[in-house]
Write a structure and sequence with these properties.
The chain contains 12 helices and 17 strands. It has about 425 residues and is an alpha+beta fold. The protein has 2 domains: about 100 residues, Serine-tRNA synthetase, tRNA binding domain (Helix Hairpins), CATH 1.10.287; about 300 residues, Bira Bifunctional Protein, Domain 2 (BirA Bifunctional Protein, domain 2), CATH 3.30.930.10. It has an 8-stranded mixed β-sheet. The protein has a 3-stranded mixed β-sheet with strand order 7-13-14, with no helix packed on it. Strands 2-3 form a two-stranded antiparallel ribbon. It is elongated.
């Protein structure tokens, strides 16, 4: 959510920020609505003052036994006019709020210009890609050949974009989630949470998933939403709260199932596990002071990178351009893992600083001292990591020519010492 005062102060800068995302200017329309609202409220205050005076005059007339009918008629007329002005102000307020809710966050100046992912910038690349003496296979070829990855069975149960994992692959996916949680809680200071998978509309709105992304999420018949990421319940824990500065930063993590309709993804990644309606992810969320949020963004991204380094997966960090940065983010780093079966880099984590964008929507604030005025916190979120995509990266990077998969050494304690699958 945007601060209307910032729009009033510099409408040209506000429109310029939207233009970086390819959006048309809105300041003229919004300021006109704001002016109409303020005019209505000013007139309403004037009428309220007159109505208060009338009330005294009517009372005085009655005490003196004089005719008050003219005054009472004026009071009735004022009441009707005031109700109309209040309705006008409320309508303008709602229109402004609805328009602001549809506008994305303002981008950080460091975000490069560009329309799509082709303009993203490589920040660094870590770990050497393996030179396979054979043609590496994709994860679904490996998994299906072992009989441990079954898309046909999942389709019979649920339709497309689902998978059934069996045996050692199911155990490997579970091990990955546990390893990530242990790393993020044990070394990076995140507190583990077990969160609801169903949330209300307010939680989805506060984390900028509604109204913009309603078509990309699943909603139940009673109005609850299946979470697209644990970012939603974790960040919403501070909704409506005033947190003491001494309690910041809050660092929270959760391993949860996530649900996405993948609207608009028809024909993309139809084979395999890359784009699923249901998947597991370890989410990282931070709530911090405005002056610490940039350092926290770097810290969070490094926490996600550490997972890939421990698994010995080649990866690179990307700074997303204006056209590829998500709706709620001021700046985003994507981590992309190298998938030798595809011979391509694919996103495996996205770490974003939303600054006070979400905090304004959910009214999450901090107080620096007793009696001090509250101010909005900054919120950040990132994947630490997407478990299914990490499973894909492990399978493709640790595959053998005979179709077996070596277990990365860091995972072997989670698999009872198992070194090879298949």
């Amino acid at each position: 959510m945007h601060d209307l005062r910032a729009l009033r102060a510099d409408p040209a800068a506000f429109d310029a920020a939207l233009a970086r995302r390819g959006l048309a200017p809105v300041s003229e329309v919004l300021l006109a609505r704001d002016e109409a609202r303020r005019t209505a409220l000013t007139r309403l205050q004037e009428l309220q003052a007159r109505r208060n005076a009338l009330s005294k005059e009517i009372g005085q007339a009655k005490r003196q036994g004089t005719d008050s009918s003219t005054l009472e008629a004026e009071a009735v007329s004022l009441r009707g006019e005031m109700e109309g002005l209040q309705a006008e102000a409320n309508e303008a307020d709602a229109a402004i709020a609805a328009a602001l809710a549809e506008l994305p966050n303002r981008l950080d100046p460091s975000v490069p210009d560009g329309r799509d992912e082709s303009a993203n910038v490589v920040v660094h690349e870590k770990s050497a890609r393996r030179n396979f003496p054979f043609a590496p296979r994709q994860h679904f070829e490996l998994g299906e050949a072992m009989g441990l990855m079954d898309f046909a069975a999942a389709s019979k149960l649920s339709g497309s974009r689902f998978v059934v994992l069996r045996g050692a692959l199911a155990r490997l996916e579970r091990a990955l989630g546990q390893f990530m949680l242990d790393l993020q809680t044990g070394e990076h200071g995140y507190t583990e949470h077990n969160v609801p998978l169903l949330v209300n509309e307010a939680a989805m709105y506060g984390t900028d998933k509604l109204p913009k992304f309603a078509d990309q999420s699943f909603v139940t018949t009673d109005g609850r939403w299946l979470i697209p990421t644990a970012e939603v319940p974790l960040t919403s824990l501070v909704a409506g709260e005033i947190v003491a500065e001494a309690g910041l930063p809050l660092r929270m993590t959760a391993l949860s199932a996530c649900f996405r309709s993948e609207a608009g993804a028809a024909g993309r990644d139809t084979r395999g596990m890359l784009r699923q309606h249901q998947f597991f992810k370890v989410e990282l969320v931070s709530v911090t002071t405005p002056e610490e949020s940039e350092a926290e963004h770097e810290r969070m991204t490094r926490a996600a990178e550490t997972v890939l380094e421990r698994l010995e997966i080649p990866y690179r960090r990307m700074l997303l351009c204006a056209g590829d940065t998500g709706f709620g983010a001021a700046r985003t780093y994507d981590l992309e893992a190298w998938l030798p079966g595809q011979a391509a880099w694919r996103e495996i984590s996205s770490c974003s600083n939303t600054r006070d964008f979400q905090a304004r929507r959910m009214n999450a604030r901090l107080r620096r001292s007793a009696g001090g005025a509250p101010e909005f916190v900054h919120t950040l979120n990132g994947s630490g990591l997407a478990v299914g995509r990490t499973l894909i990266a492990v399978m493709e990077n640790w595959q053998r020519e005979d179709g077996r998969i070596d277990v990365p050494p860091v995972l072997r304690p989670y698999l009872g010492g198992l070194e090879t699958i298949g």
